[in-house]
Each structure stands twice: as structure tokens, then as C-alpha cells.
Amino acid sequence: MNKLQKYRIKKNYSCQFMADKLNISKSFYWQIENKKRRLSYETAIKIANIFNTKPDSLFYDDFCNKKQED
Questions:
Q1: Is the pLDDT of residue 68 over 60?
Q2: What percent of the chain has pLDDT over 70?
Q3: How far apart are CA 51 and CA 22, in angstroms?
Q4: pTM (2 decimals)?
């Protein structure tokens, strides 16, 4: 389970709730959460705002890990 999933589950939010908040489809949100889609900076900020945190708290580790894989 990745950090984004942990935050969502901890808040008891569904994928549909997150998608509705972000004004995207549930499947698009699921793809973001499961790293099947790239995340725009704007969307990262919106997601972080939903969780009352900063984008780096949610996504920086993933970004660093991706850089190491490349």
C-alpha cells in the first residue's frame, strides 16, 4: 500500500469521494493512486489540500524512488 492509499484509508475516503473532490473519474483517480497515470502538479496540490498536508508529504518519496529507478 502506498502513501496516498494510506492517507485515503486513514480518512475513510473512498476512491469515488476523492474523484468527486478532484472533479475526475473514479478510474482516473485509481490510476493515479496505483501509479498507472502521471500526476500533474496541480492535481498533487489538490490532493494534498484534501488531506490538509503538503504535496511533498504525499509524493516526494515516490518522486525520489522514480528518479533512482531511471
A1: no
A2: 86
A3: 12
A4: 0.82
24: domain CATH number? 1.10.260.40
DSSP-assigned letters across all residues of 44-57: HHHHHHHTTS-HHH
Write out pLDDT tens, residues 26-44: 999 999 999 899 889 999 9
**What is the rounded distance in angstroms from the CA atom of residue 46 to the CA atom of residue 41?**
9
The domain of 11 spans 3-69
Q: State residue 13 phi and psi, 5-degree precision.
A: -95, 140
Task: State the DSSP code for 34.
Answer: T
* 70, three cell numbers: 531511471
The distance from CA 19 to its chain's CA centroid, rounded to whole angstroms, is 10
